[in-house]
From TrEMBL:
Its EC number is 1.11.1.7. It is found in: Secreted. GO terms for cellular component: extracellular region. It catalyses: 2 a phenolic donor + H2O2 = 2 a phenolic radical donor + 2 H2O. It is an enzyme of class 1 (oxidoreductase). Residues 1-26 form the signal peptide. It comes from Punica granatum (Pomegranate). This is Peroxidase. GO terms for molecular function: heme binding; lactoperoxidase activity; metal ion binding. InterPro entries: Haem_peroxidase, Haem_peroxidase_sf, Peroxidase_pln, Peroxidases_AS, Peroxidases_heam-ligand_BS, Secretory_peroxidase. It holds the Pfam family peroxidase. Disulfide bonds join 37-115, 72-77, 121-318, 198-230.
Length: 327
């Protein structure tokens, strides 16, 4: 009861401060760019870029999901992660393996060619991610647009939940952004696609919590399989699918949750979702549901609504703030 009361208190405090994360430049809305670029359909222009890439590389869905999460979770969805620089968010350890920047650049070039100075890079991230998710899961969801691009990008601002974080710590981290426990469980469902490097979970295979044994919550058959892919003293940091159902490893669906129930979660935080009393009922419900794509889309829209309220602009290049205007 004490833990439950603490969690409720954290959520209440987060909701009280959530207003600080709302946009100061007008409310976001679906179809924000309609009519702002003549007859051009900006969302279809972005989608065309994503489709062309997805056909060649369907793993781009996982990359864009991660890109949006890493952007929105740090000072709101302002494309600050796209800025280049020796001391930018890109240089923070959690972002060193983030990819997908080239797709955003391509989409930005495409929209600038027909509608210069109107479409933000922050909106392109959200639109492109939605497009990739719909291509992977065959479920379209409306996204809100109207964001401005941020002016600041610092590695010190990057404080993302790690793979060994506890469920209660993860709940608190998401609550600080105004996201509920259910939102968190759905958003972590982004792990239904993508891979993890062995270094992020190797302790679970060999020396869990310094016991000299594997994590007892992991399926022994999975331990054996992963050990062959992730030798204990290997100098190569291989990757494995986060969804161990090989038939759906590239599909945005609820297979991830079914794998967690079978004790086949790869990352510690993923497996804990199915074991912790604060989240196991939600995992069970999603695993049995037929509406995962719809609910996941709703959670992504909530994530996309995070805004810091700081001043912004429409960047000419997603990789740099605009030069000062001459007086």
């Amino acid at each position: 009861m004490k833990m439950a009361r603490t969690t409720i208190l954290v959520l209440a405090l987060a909701l009280a401060t959530a207003s600080l994360m709302r946009p100061c430049n007008g409310a976001l809305e679906a179809g924000f760019y309609r009519g702002k670029c003549g007859i051009a359909d900006i969302e279809q222009v972005v989608r065309g870029v994503v489709v062309a890439r997805f056909v060649r590389d369907p793993t781009i869905t996982a990359a864009l999901l991660r890109l949006q999460f890493h952007d929105c979770f740090v000072n709101g969805c302002d494309a600050s992660i796209l800025l280049d620089g020796e001391k930018s968010e890109k240089t923070a350890p959690p972002n060193l393996s983030v990819r997908g920047y080239d797709i955003i650049d391509a989409a930005k070039s495409a929209v600038e060619a027909i509608c210069p100075g109107v479409v933000s890079c922050a909106d392109i991230i959200v639109m492109a991610t939605r497009d990739a998710v719909s291509l992977s899961g065959r479920k379209w969801y409306l996204v809100q647009t109207g964001r401005k691009d941020g002016l600041v990008s610092l590695p010190s601002d990057v404080n993302l939940p790690g793979p060994t974080i506890s469920v209660s710590q993860s709940i608190a981290a998401f609550a600080q952004k105004g996201l509920s426990v259910t939102d968190m469980v759905y958003l972590l469902g982004g792990h239904t696609v993508g891979v993890a490097h062995c270094s992020f979970f190797q302790d679970r295979l060999y020396n869990f919590q310094k016991t000299g044994k594997p994590d007892p919550t992991m399926d022994p058959a999975l331990v054996r399989t992963l050990r062959s892919r992730c030798p204990e003293k290997s100098k190569v940091d291989n990757t494995v699918n986060l969804d161990q159902n090989q038939l759906s490893a590239l599909t945005v669906d609820n297979s991830y949750y079914k794998q967690l129930q079978a004790h086949r979660g790869i990352l510690q935080i993923d497996q804990e979702l199915a074991l912790d009393r604060l989240t196991n009922a939600t995992v069970s419900k999603i695993a049995k549901s037929l509406d995962f794509s719809t609910k996941f889309g709703e959670a992504m829209v909530k994530l996309g609504a995070l805004q810091s309220g700081s001043p912004g602009e429409i960047r000419k290049s997603c990789r740099a703030v605009n030069p000062p205007r001459s007086k």
